[in-house]
Structure formats: structure tokens, C-alpha cells
Amino acid sequence: MNKLSEAEKNGVYKAIFNRRDIRTFLQTPIPDETLYKLLEAAHSGPSVGFMQPWNFIIIKDDETKKKLAAIVEKERRALAIHYEGTDRELTFLDLKIAGILEAPVTICVTCNPFSAGDHVLGRNSIPETDLMSTSCAIQNMWLAAYAEGLAMGWVSFYKKADVRTILGIPYHVDPVALLSVGYTENYPDRPLLEIHNWEKRQRLDGLVFEGEWGERSK
Ligand SMILES: Cc1cc2nc3c(=O)[nH]c(=O)nc-3n(C[C@H](O)[C@H](O)[C@H](O)COP(=O)(O)O)c2cc1C
User: Fold this and answer.
1) Which GO terms describe its molecular function (predicted)?
2) Which atom number of ligand 1 is nearest to the Cα of residue 142?
3) CB atoms closer than 10 angstroms to residue 117
4) Which CATH number fits domain 22-188: 2.40.170.20, 3.40.109.10, 3.40.1180.10, 2.60.40.1120?
5) How many CB atoms lie within 10 A of CB 31?
6) Which atom of ligand 1 is found nearest the CA of 193?
7) Do the Cβ atoms of 162 and 68 come closer than 8 Å?
8) What is the pLDDT of residue 16?
9) Of 129, 134, 110, 111, whose CA–CA distance to 57 is shortest?
10) How far apart are CA 218 and CA 197, in angstroms?
11) Nearest to residue 180, comparing CAs of 122, 134, 141, 136?
12) What is the best residue among 16, 19, 21 to mutate for testing ligand 1's pocket, by most ligand atoms within 8 Å of CB?
């Protein structure tokens, strides 16, 4: 087992605690080597039965970004209807939920449930483990972005069919995330949804049970 130095350990926790979801980007390009490091971090993630169900589509082209931004905006407007007439309506309309047009790069992370064939160790018991594995890869990439001084924003407001059409993704492959990546001048120290009074972090001790569901530690 590798032992981290105190400084290395602090670095890991710093990345975990300070990483943020970002939606405002500078247009400064990202060097290809740096982008590749993010992908390597993702590809080093754990996966059920080591199936590595992910693919990464790198999007830099403005036309494609415009198409993606348009379907995200369509979904945002559809969701806005749910908040019409409620006390959250104005807050929702104020929220920025994507920075696709600004960010120099969007990465579409996909999950192919059949990437390792019909029988994958572990996946046959819980099929969603392929998606869970892909999420682990994304979190790795998010932390690597933080380490590289980059910002990342996870965009999930879209219909999968729309993303498949725009990016030519086969119907059996799941577009799990659109990740906006770029440099930013605006890296908040708290989640944006907390800053905008939408939601706040729950207390950890209220989420922890001991021994069985609902039991608090004495
Ligand atoms: C699966 C997933 C989907 C998300 N989708 C969106 C999204 O579509 N738009 C958005 O603005 N943020 C999205 N987020 C970011 C969350 O809003 C954010 O992680 C949360 O508010 C906590 O903030 P933090 O990541 O800065 O700690 C998503 C996060 C996850 C994990």
C-alpha cells in the first residue's frame, strides 16, 4: 500500500472538497496534453467486472456545440413549466444550468452496456453497475480537472435521443453526460445551487445510521 505524504494527502482532500460544478468559462483553449490527462484519469476509474463501458466524444466544433446548447435550452424551458406559479419559478429562471457555448471543449461521456459482451462479472446482478462505473470515471475526470486548474460542468438537461442524433451515437449506447470543460475566472467556494438559495448541503450526521436503517448512533 502506498503511503501519501501529508502534503499529498491534503492535496487529495483539497480536490475533493473544493471541486465545483462550473457553468461560466473563458474561451482560452485547453492544451491537448492536459485534455488527455483528464481522459486518462477517467479511464483509470473502477468499473464492474473491469468492463470499462465508457467512450469519450471530444467536441470543439462551434456548430455541434450550438446544436447541443439548443437541445439543452429546449429541455430547460420544458422543466421551467414545472416551476411555473411556484415559489421556485424565479429562482429556476435565474439559474444557469449549462455553459456549453462558452466552454472551449465539451466531452460527451457514453456508456455501452454491451462493451464487454453478454456476461460481465457483477453486472448481471445489478445492471445499473455499468452506469455507476461510468459515473466513477466522470468523477475522476472532475477531480483531475480541478488538479489541472480547469473547471468542469456536468450537463444532464437533455433528451438522450437528441444527443444521439447530433453526435451519431448508436441507439444502444447511453449518452451519460455532457461535460463542459475550460478555464474560468469564477470558481466559487460553495455549490452554485447553494449560493442561489436553491438547495444546501445536508448535515452528514443526519444521513448516517448505525447497524440498521433509521438507527442513530448513541
Ligand atoms: C449526475 C449529475 C447531473 C448534473 N446535471 C447538471 C445540469 O444539467 N446542470 C447543472 O447546472 N448542473 C448539473 N449537475 C451539477 C450539480 O448541480 C452540482 O453537482 C450540485 O449542485 C453540487 O455542486 P458542486 O458540484 O459544485 O459541489 C449535475 C451533477 C450530477 C452529479
Assistant:
1) 5,6-dimethylbenzimidazole synthase activity
2) 25
3) 7
4) 3.40.109.10
5) 9
6) 21
7) no
8) 98
9) 110
10) 33
11) 141
12) 21
Q: Ligand 1 center to residue 163 CA distance, Å?
A: 18
Q: Which residues contact 54 (CB under 8 A, 6 or more apart)?
A: 42, 43, 47, 109, 110, 111, 112, 133, 134, 137
pLDDT at 84: 87
- Ligand 1 site residues (CB inside 6 A) read 20-21, 23, 97-98, 154-157, 191, 193
* Local mean pLDDT, 10-residue blocks, the chain (218 residues): 93 98 96 98 97 98 97 92 85 82 97 90 90 98 98 97 98 98 96 94 96 90
* Residue 154 alpha carbon to ligand 1 centre in Å: 6
Residue 42 contacts residue 179 (beta carbons within 8 Å): no
Pocket test of ligand 1: the residue of 22, 24, 94, 154 to mutate, having most ligand atoms within 8 Å of its CB, is: 154
Contacts of 7 (CB under 8 A, 6+ apart): none
Cα→Cα distances 138→27, 119, 199, Å? 22, 24, 23
Residue 163 carries which side chain, given as an amino acid letter? V
Q: Which atom of ligand 1 is nearest to the CA of 22?
A: 26
